[in-house]
Amino acid sequence: MLEIPCPWCGLRCESEFSYGGEAHIVRPENPEALNDEAWADYLFMRKNPRGPHLEQWHHVYGCRRWFNVKRDTLSYRIECSYRVGEQPPEGEI
Amino acid sequence: MPAGRLKTNETEGRITLSRPITFSFNGKTLQGYQGDTLASALLANGIHLVGRSWKYHRPRGILGSGTEEPNAVVQLGIGARTVPNVLATQLEIYEGLEASSVNCWPSLEHDLLSVNGWFSRLMPAGFYYKTFMWPKSMWMKYEQAIRRASGLGVSPNLPDPDRYEKTYAHCDVLVVGAGPAGLMAALAAGRTGARVILADEQSEPGGSLLYSRETIEGLPAMKWVAGVWQELESMEEMKLLRRSTVFGYHDQNFLTIAERLNDHLPRWECRGARERLWKVRARQVVLASGALERPLVFGNNDRPGVMLASAVSCYINRFAVAPGSRCLVFTNNDSAYGAALDMVDAGIQVQAVVDCRPRPRGVLPERLRQRGVEIIAGSVVVNVKGTHRVKAAQVMQLPAQNGILKGEKRLIHCDLLAMSGGWSPVVHLSSQSGARARWDDARACFLPGMPVQQERSAGAANGSFSLNACLSEGSFAGREAARLAGWEWDNQPDPPSSSMQLEEPVQPLWLVPSEYAPGRGPKQFVDMQNDVGAADIILAAREGYHSIEHVKRYTALGFGTDQGKVGNINGMAILAQSLGATIADTGTTTFRPNYTPVTFGAIAGQEVGEKLFEPVRKTALHEWHQARGAAFENVGQWKRPWYYPKSGESMQEAVNRECLATRESVGIIDVSTLGKIVITGKDSGEFLNRIYTNAWKKLAIDKARYGLMLGEDGMVMDDGVTIRLSENRYYMHTTTGGAAGVYSWMERWLQTEWPDLQVFLISVTDHWATAAVVGPNSRRVMMGACQGIDFSAQSFPFMSSREGTVGSIPARINRISFSGELAYEVNVPANLGKPMWEVLMAVGEEFGITPYGTETMHVLRAEKGYIIVGQDTDGSVTPDDLGMGWALSKTKDFLGKRSLAREDCMREDRKQLVGLLTINRTEVLPEGGQIVEDPDAAIPVPMIGHVTSSYYSACLGHSIALALVQGGRSRIGEIVHIPLAEGRVIPARISDPVFYDPDGERQNV
Question: Whole-model pTM?
Answer without folding.
Answer: 0.85
